[in-house]
Structure prediction request, 610 residues.
Amino acid sequence: MAIQFKEVSFSYRGVKDQQYEAIKDINLQIDKGEFIAVCGQTGSGKTTMVQHMNALLQPTRGNVFIFEHTLPQKKKQKIGPIRKRVGLVFQFPEYQLFEETILKDIMFGPKNFGLSNEEAKEKALMAAKLVGLSEDLLEKSPFRISGGQMRRVAIAGILAMEPDILVLDEPTRGLDPQGSKEIMDLFYKLHKENDKTIILVSHDMDIIANYASRVVVLDEGQIVFDGSKEDLFSQKDFDSFHLAKPKTIEVMHYLNEQIGIPFKNLFSFEDVLAYLKEVSK
Amino acid sequence: MNNIVIGQYVHGSSWIYKLDPRIKISALVILLVTTFLLSNLFLMSIMFGLMIVMIFSTRVPFLKMIRGMKPLIFLLTFTFFIQIFSIQEGNVLLQQTMYIGPLSVLAMMTIVIIYFLIKRYIKFKIILFFLVVFLIFYVQAILPSTLIGLQDFTYEFVIRELALQYTGFLLLRIMIVVMLSSLLTFTTLPTDITNGLESLLRPLKVIKFPVGELATMLSLTLRFIPTLLDETQKIMKAQASRGVEFSESKLKDKITQIVSLLIPIFVISFKRAEDLANAMEARGYIIGGKRTKVDMLKMRVFDIFVLFVCLGLLTTSILLRVGVIQIAL
Prediction:
């Protein structure tokens, strides 16, 4: 077990000391090696929940267990070890870049966790390779490359810390379809080959359907669904989640209605094609 | 961090909220001038009393206003001692020989060290502060080093009536200035203040002073403070996930940390500024162009009345100052 939420609530303090509960009584267990998607409407508490996994926020009620650590922490406890094991990629991570060269920026994280210059450089080069940044880019300024590449640099900066768990807050937001696919394929590869646990926050149901195996749906700060994606899209009260269905499922529904091809939950167009070939035989 | 209130505006609905911001700004200036024209403690007390009555009638949270005076306490204490030592006339109220020597210096240092040690655990910091100041002087009076057989440097600590009077006078004056100014910021939205200022400064247009642009700049700045704070929060969190611990670290690391925060903020600000400039231009904003306002400022009878009351106070104080009116003390 990697991360566990036990009746976790978090409230923000608004004007005049009113409490505004962003998440309520969250119970969630995430095991090693999972690929989980978290979705829900804007303001449903996704980001708040995810920030607990990195100890950026401490629960106001309940406990979060991250490996051997427990939140809320005592005052003197260090947060560093948690953040080293759980890497959080923020929305628009390209805004966090600041160093003179791309390499230095990727090295920033590892160095903060106490690695020497050489070690950090080694990790940075590895991470740069993982995200597909060519070596001649590394000495350039991070402000002189394209938005998509900046995002890769930012992601490499997190990967260089070699976290066991990667938390991604809308990693594809603001990218074109091609860029989104590349980034998501990268995370999928990390998940498959390096056995990283991935927690993905996203609005995009196509991406979720394509990559995640388990889906958690939040609504008004509470978990309303937690299960496999197959179960999610065949839920009777699916409409109450205010989510769209992935395109493949819509296509399958359409084909079912129009020409009576039996409906099947499929999540990639390759699978749809294979299935159609099989049916038409 | 979503609900940052800029300035100290406190929501309310008493008469002062309904005043025209131009009148409020002018009234503040007039009352401040009045305060500085008053020349003795008696008049200052009257002025202070008037102000307290006014503050209560506006139903602004009084405690909050008092809390805003906290940073002044050190300054006021300091002024008090300067006055005591510099004014050497008038009736003597208290006279005491003070000893500065090894023993008392040691005692004073102990008190200061204890103060800094227990400061963070104590709730009533102000009371503690006064207690410490008192103790520092008290040990000078009761601990001559002859007790342990050493020589002392001695001086006379004299509190005179005039010094007390003058300190009180200064104290009241500072308090009036601070409280009146905070009354304006407590009861006026920053946008209203800018609008008021723009309108008041309009005559300067004659000498080609860019009043309108200045007001736009001011209101844009105010508008973007929460946005930038929000962005700063985000960047801080992002860098925290990269292992930056903003609270606990050495000075050398602190510098890198601040850079890791400042550069992204600069980048974001420039980007925002560019977007904003484009958006404004796309909607036809021209620098120096003629503009209309959504909120027109309108003066009412009550506004004029308030202005006349303030002017009346000013006139009285001028007349008192030049000696046309005299009060018997």
